[in-house]
Amino acid sequence: MSDLTDHGAFGHDRLPVSDLDAFLDRIGAAALPLTGAVACLVDLPAEVAGPRALRMAAPLGGPLADSLHRLVERQPGAPAPEDCPRHLEQEVAGRRLRFVVERLGGRHRPRPQPDLGTLVLGFDAETASADDAGRASKGFLAMLEALLVERRAKIAMSRDMAALRRHAQHLQRRVMQDALTGLENADAFRQAVRRALNAGRTPHALVLLDVDHFKQINDLHGHQFGDVYLRAIAGALTGSVPPGTRLGRIGGDEFALLLRLQDDAETVLSQVMRDCRAGLARMAQTISKPGLGSVSMGVALFPRHSESFEALFEQADTALYAAKETGRGTDVIFDPHCHLRFSLRELTRNFSGALAAGEIGPAFHPVVNLATGECTGYEVLARWRGENGEVMGPELFYPIFDNAVLAQQLTCSMIRQATEVLRRLPARGALGGAPLRMGINVTGFDLHNRQFSGSLSRLLSDLGLPWEAIVIEVPETVMLGETGGRAFETLRDLRKRGAAIALDDFGTGYGSLRHLGTWPIDILKIDRQFVQGLSGRPRDRAVVEAILGMARRFGLRVVAEGIETPGQLSYLQAMGCESGQGHLLSPPLCPGQLAGAPRVYPVGERVT
Predict the structure, then answer these.
(1) Which tens digits make up the pLDDT trace of 114-168?
(2) Of 30, 330, 420, 527, which is most buried by a Cβ count within 10 Å?
(3) What pairing do the DSSP bridges indicate for beta strands 557-560 and 523-526?
């Protein structure tokens, strides 16, 4: 509490210094001479005084000061007096005084203000009548109220500005923070890495991490669990890296860290990556679900590999692709002599040019009836024939399938080239008059394209080919959504037109079993990994038998992929598998080989 000094000057616990505060001090000091009062007290709430309530009085102490304080003190929670102003007479130290108690900003005024406090003026009752006291306090009261209204507005504005600053800081943190994990988001991480690299030539390692099989984990356990898993990964990485390491989430299941290196860079880097893997393994044990805790890492070194952030990031991304190619769960440091083929930018540029130049064309892998040896059709496979004569399959340019534009361009090109080849064949029908079917691999991008069915329909019409000659082969992951979506509607439309729908690589995904009864499916293609394990792994034989039994109950045809040995063929024949393809029967054929390709392939005696 602050008081007036005994000679009338207002003192206080230092309100914020401003011209208004200084003027208020002067008004307080002039209260007694301006009004002719012998005592004055101003009681201000925190909304007006500032950080806390303030009471200013003159004289500072003694019986008169005590009387002033008693006049404004209220019990906790008691309402403000409604009958202000009040005129009271009291005997104070043998002296008769007349007090005027005014509520500042009271509701009795024409334009009431919020509660600004209370003013008490004490007059000598012998020299000042009640009317005199009222007139004397009226002018001073109006001036004081005007100043307090202005001060209250100023304090409110200051508080609003402080709140806005706090809100802006909060928004700034949110803009720079990944909402799910609390790590830096992609933009914030990239900006921080640029600043760190531009600050000098101190060695750093940029490490990109990709969660292995996250999509399958998400599909198996649900998106809510996927979010929990990503948060757990963020926590494990945060607890595994050295202090000062910058860590961010730069994509759905992609993380990145910038590690400052010492003289022994390779040793430090290897230790940090081991610590990260150990932390992730401990995290996975606490969650107790299979297949968790595995990540692939790609590393690029500054300034050894590049002094440019953009180039360094691309090199780390290239190393990450190389790590995935080696089987995932590994870490790879960028090597320009080995990894350029994994560079997404180089791959995209070269692929786009090769597609335009006609260097990417179809190969035709025969599908054979395993009972009769009859060739019933072909699966169309993309092959990239480089200038040096090297022929690359999709396994060497699979990042293209994550690019919506290039993936659809590739599908369109394969369909156009393959149908033209099929149209020129001397005999386009299989034995027995059935149409020779052509299997076309499509992506989710194609099935979400509303023009896909119509474009294919026009092409077949122009070439004079029936819809029954087309098999649309889709990966299991396309059928993980709910019925009624764009992919579902496209497949249903294609099937209604006459095309068959084949579910490719069946058995490797996590979520397609529940869709077999609802999605438009005609054919299941058993993934090669189960076929190749038939001779030596009883579990794989059990899986294949289960798929065949399920297909019979659903009325679906089955094609086994990757038949490479007579033993695998015998097992499939014994199980009653209808069709198959693989190098044992025939390798993929180039367009020029189709005209002379066998109509019937040797499949040996059926094993019983």
Answers:
(1) 678 888 888 888 888 878 777 877 878 888 888 888 777 787 788 888 888 888 7
(2) 527
(3) parallel
